[in-house]
Structure formats: C-alpha cells, structure tokens
Amino acid sequence: MCKGLAALPHTCLERAKEIKTKLGTLLQKPDSAIDFIIPYPEKPEKPPKAQKPSPEEALQWRDSLEKLLQNPYGLASFCSFLRSEFSEENAEFWVACEDYKKTKSPVKMAEKAKKIYEEFIQTEAPKEVNIDHFTKAVTMKNLVEPSPSSFDMAQKRIFALMEKDSLPRFVRSEFYQELIK
Q: Which of 81, 107, 111, 77 is closest to 96 using CA atoms?
C-alpha cells in the first residue's frame, strides 16, 4: 500500500520542493507565441577579473581537470557552468578543501573542518556531496583530530566524479566553446 509523500525522508521532500520551484519558472507558459520564435539566450556569468587564458591554454583543460582548477579564470568559468546546472557543490567542496589544506593554525583548522563537514559531508548537509558511505566514515574518523589531509579521500572521490561527469559536460558547453575561439 502506498504511504504517499509522508513516507519519504524530509530531505527528499525539501529537495523535491527546490526542484519544483526551479522547474516551475521553466514550465510557465509564455505570454505570446513570440517567445517560441525568439529564444532569449542567457549570457554566461562572467568570471571574476582574472586574466583570460589563450585558446591554447584553455584547450589543455579538455584533458586535465587539474589544470582547469588551478587556473583562476578556468575555475571561475567551471563554477559558473556548474552553477547554471545547479550542481556547483562539488567544485565548492573541492575549493573549500584546497583552502583548508593551507590552514596552519590548529584552532582555525578545526573550525574550517567543522564548517566543511556540516556544509558538504554530513547527511542532509545543505550542499551535500555525493560520496560513498566508506569515504564518509573515513572522513568522519579523520576529523577526530583534524589535519591537512582530513578530507583527502573525499576530495579525491569528488575530483574523480567531476573529471568523469562534469568536465565532459563543461567542454561541450558554450562557456568553454567561447574560451577556445
């Protein structure tokens, strides 16, 4: 017997509401038929003031997510692209981990570790990243005594996910195609 929506976990319902809201605007009927004829192309968000790479340099990103993420303009372009797809949490997590690794003070490291955990790792986190149970458990164990390598396993998993999934979509996107012209 179907128990309906009440049987779903709270996070599923919240996520469904978010998606419904986002899709609601797309599903609204246009005011006139002209909207079907003349599309309104949205310009990609401009990355912050960083030196635009040469087309040759941008072409290297096609084969190397690491090079893309190391370039400030590339990172900003990639994040803008992911934001347009409502999937920026992986890149944000990766950036947060890179920042975390540079932290010297044990007190600040513990604060940042807690923030990263609560924002990206814990179940039902606002920007929860998609990592397996084992990786989550190892990361939680590492956070008992935070160190620069506490998030390494999770960060590597997310890097691999972005490399396999997000990078190929980015390379096919207008964001990237404009860079290599």
A: 111
